[in-house]
User: Which sequence fits this backbone?
């Protein structure tokens, strides 16, 4: 019986060492996964920002619905006419891609939205890179006069855009 207990003790010790080794490997893999996820997020942000810069540099090359099509140039208004509901010569640049989708979404929303809410509503992946990219886009839309930021991080359509009165409904004619 003692040899059986000794064998059982050795098996238990070997399994304990195996568990410790697997735990160490798991920690190492978790660290590698975390590093890869951080890199992926940074690359995603970089790609989005480069797409914006590329669209700004070459607005004629962007195709509707293309991920590079959401950049803007302030001289787009003069080149392409006024934006939706805007008089010719308006200071607002024309909208394309995700910028246009975000404005349409906020115009149809009955309440101000956060960048994360806009990302989700547009069917994009709810990850930090996408949310931060959208937040930057929304801030540019505020600067361009399409949106207003009621409170920090809460965006809504600006008064006067397509007849929007700023009170939650559209103006009547």
Assistant:
């Amino acid at each position: 019986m003692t040899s059986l207990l000794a064998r059982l003790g050795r098996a238990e010790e070997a399994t304990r060492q195996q568990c410790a080794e697997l735990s160490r490997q798991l920690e190492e893999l978790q660290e590698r996964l975390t590093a890869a996820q951080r890199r992926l997020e940074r690359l995603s942000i970089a790609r989005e920002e480069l797409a914006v810069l590329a669209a700004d540099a070459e607005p004629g090359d962007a195709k509707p619905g293309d991920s590079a099509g959401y950049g803007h140039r302030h001289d787009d208004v003069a080149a392409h006419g006024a934006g939706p509901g805007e008089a010719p010569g308006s200071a607002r640049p024309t909208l394309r891609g995700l910028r246009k989708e975000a404005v349409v979404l906020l115009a149809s929303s009955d309440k101000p939205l956060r960048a994360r809410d806009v990302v989700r509503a547009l069917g994009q992946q709810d990850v930090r890179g996408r949310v931060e990219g959208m937040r930057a886009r929304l801030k540019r839309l505020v600067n361009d006069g399409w949106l207003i930021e009621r409170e920090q991080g809460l965006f809504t359509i600006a008064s006067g855009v397509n007849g929007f009165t700023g009170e939650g409904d559209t103006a009547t004619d």
